[in-house]
Amino acid sequence: xxxxxxxxxxxxxxxxxxxxxxxxxxxxxxxxxxxxxxxxxxxxxxxxxxxxxxxxxxxxxxxxxxxxxxxxxxxxxxxxxxxxxxxxxxxxxxxxxxxxxxxxxxxxxxxxxxxxxxxxxxxxxxxxxxxxxxxxxxxxxxxxxxxxxxxxxxxxxxxxxxxxxxxxxxxxxxxxxxxxxxxxxxxxxxxxxxxxxxxxxxxxxxxxxxxxxxxxxxxxxxxxxxxxxxxxxxxxxxxxxxxxxxxxxxxxxxxxxxxxxxxxxxxxxxxxxxxxxxxxxxxxxxxxxxxxxxxxxxxxxxxxxxxxxxxxxxxxxxxxxxxxxxxxxxxxxxxxxxxxxxxxxxxxxxxx
Length: 352
Description:
Blueprint lengths: L3 E8 L5 H10 L6 E6 L17 E5 L11 H14 L7 E5 L6 H10 L1 H6 E11 L3 H7 L1 H8 L3 E5 L6 H14 L5 E3 L18 H7 L45 E7 L5 H15 L3 E9 L4 E8 L2 E9 L8 E7 L4 H9 L6
Parallel strand pairs: 1-4, 1-5, 2-3, 2-4, 5-6, 6-7
Antiparallel strand pairs: 8-12, 9-10, 9-12, 10-11
Helix pairs in contact: 5-6
């Protein structure tokens, strides 16, 4: 059976995620969507703000999607797969709208670590909605806002009418410093062409190069019911306020940045594989996203991407007869040592 594409819709509180979701559901596209909404708190509100359609709506009222990706989210998505296969018209796609305080990284990981979801769904992309009027403040005080931008395959820069042109250019420059990979769509009331954010294949290795042929252009040089790991970023200590009370505020850390590496020399495939595997094993918690296209000396390109400690790669299309060969790698994360990364990258070059 064909795998169902999944779009993860994220963005900080008030950015316009529900506005974009309603636009998707109102469009006369003839497609059947299932929508998973992660509410914050025990009393569901967001679901009532979504327009009435024939789509299936599922709410998870735990408020912390990053801590339930191996529990509630997996069970919800597995149920959707069963429902889609049970007969009648199957779902054309699934949209997961996270709470505004969610780290989308563990959500993305879900589709790779759970075998049922990996077989039945394919992560199409992460779309991040950004509030142009307030993103500067959010990046100053919120780790989550920066991580949502870092993980994006595309950014919907919303509410652009609330800022002037110079400020908008400055905002875009700041977003590109965090994530040089994601195209930015300027919008008012989330008015972006849906073909730009749906069916993008941002997590499809076969499309990485076709989507981002010059992705260095903007850059500088086991299912358990409740799991908390080093990627969660939440303090789940229990006191008189409970696990999500005032004592459980999110920890904010240093800014996220990107590191871009390139080489005109062919890479040794084995050395490159060992280096990348060792890198994500040692620094996976700090590496939010990575994408690379490498010349490994053969007729075809090696394309690699990673999310935290998950890494996958495969040989793609052949190099063109007149196409300049090179190797390019972009990493987005925290506390990335550019000099050390460059040295490790250079050490993977094939011997002459």
